[in-house]
Specification:
- The chain has 295 residues and is α/β, with parallel strands linked by helices.
- The protein has a single domain, classed as NAD(P)-binding Rossmann-like Domain (Rossmann fold, 3-Layer(aba) Sandwich), CATH 3.40.50.
- Helix content is 34%, strand content 12%.
- Helix 1 packs across helix 8.
- 48% of the residues are buried.
- About 4% of the residues have low confidence.
Length: 295
């Protein structure tokens, strides 16, 4: 299902089982994380499974999006990365893409602004001529212990980033997607087992899973596939920037495997769903949860 996560004699990076307490301001950056996540920078080896494809990845500066960008490039795809304002992280991701011999286009801006979201696909078409793979991965969350802590603005922002931007990009991309193209939307284990402290985020992740199931049926006659991935706990900048330090410490220990995933462990699933090998996979929701089942 995946590219080999080794390169010659270089072993996959060790994955720490826990993280110390730490805190950042949103959206968070890689440079402040302890330990630094593994995105497959030293370990992912491609085999041409996405040769010649053109991909758009939102939230591609770090976390799952960065791991997917690196894997896609090493599998032969050019990528456009949409991100908020984490310029150093985005440039470093682009460096890895370009070292793989592929093009990387960086587009900074706030996806909660619909006018900005509507610039992403036209830019990709301008640069690449078409869109073969769309990965809607950007997301916002914030931890709250009670409903009265959630402001109207935060509620609207969460839905705008997680749901509305996904809808806009899907609608804009479809006319530029050839038969065999793939849409991959990042859902979450929270779509089925919502955390009470992440209520707005969990709602959007359930909506993503539901919308993707509809999309697969709507687009089947065009030869375009749509699937979602439901990650469990993943060690990304989203965690220390949106959770209190006491929840960051030991984040992920609640799942059967006893630890959070590294972003590199998610990338192979996205590669499969983007590849022609998954030609009959549409309407699926793939759980990558460290043993915690989804309904």
């Amino acid at each position: 299902m995946s590219g080999d996560r080794t390169t010659g004699d270089v072993p996959a990076e060790p994955r720490p089982e826990s993280q110390p307490a730490q805190q950042q301001t949103p959206p968070g950056t890689l440079g402040q994380m302890e330990p630094r996540p593994d995105h497959g920078e030293q370990s992912y080896r491609g085999s041409g499974r996405l040769a010649g494809k053109k991909a758009v990845i939102t939230g591609g500066d770090s976390g799952i999006g960065r791991a997917v960008a690196i894997a896609f490039a090493r599998e032969g795809a050019d990528v456009l990365i949409s991100y908020l304002d984490e310029h150093d992280d985005a440039k470093d991701t682009a460096r890895h893409v370009e070292q793989a011999g592929r093009r990387c286009v960086l587009v900074a801006g706030d996806l909660s602004d619909r006018s900005h979201a509507r610039t992403i696909i036209p830019r990709a078409v301008e640069e690449f001529g078409r869109v073969d793979v769309l990965v809607n991965n950007a997301a916002f969350q914030m931890t709250h212990e009670s409903l009265d802590e959630i402001s109207d603005d935060e509620w609207d922002h969460t839905l705008a980033v997680n749901l509305t931007a996904m809808f806009v990009l899907c609608r804009d991309a479809v006319p530029h997607m050839p038969p065999g193209a793939s849409i991959i939307n990042s859902s979450s284990v929270n779509s089925d087992m919502p955390s009470p402290t992440l209520a707005p985020y969990a709602l959007t992740k359930a909506g993503i899973a539901n919308f993707t199931a509809s999309l697969a049926q709507l687009l089947a006659d065009k030869g375009i596939r749509a699937n979602s991935v439901a990650p469990g706990p993943v060690w990304t900048p989203l965690i220390p920037s949106t959770m209190p330090p006491e929840k960051v410490e030991g984040f992920g220990e609640q799942v059967p495997m006893g630890r959070a995933a590294q972003p590199a462990e998610l990338a192979p699933v996205y590669v499969l769903l983007a590849s022609d090998e998954a030609s009959y996979v549409s309407g699926a929701r793939i759980a990558v949860t460290g043993g915690k089942p989804i309904l």
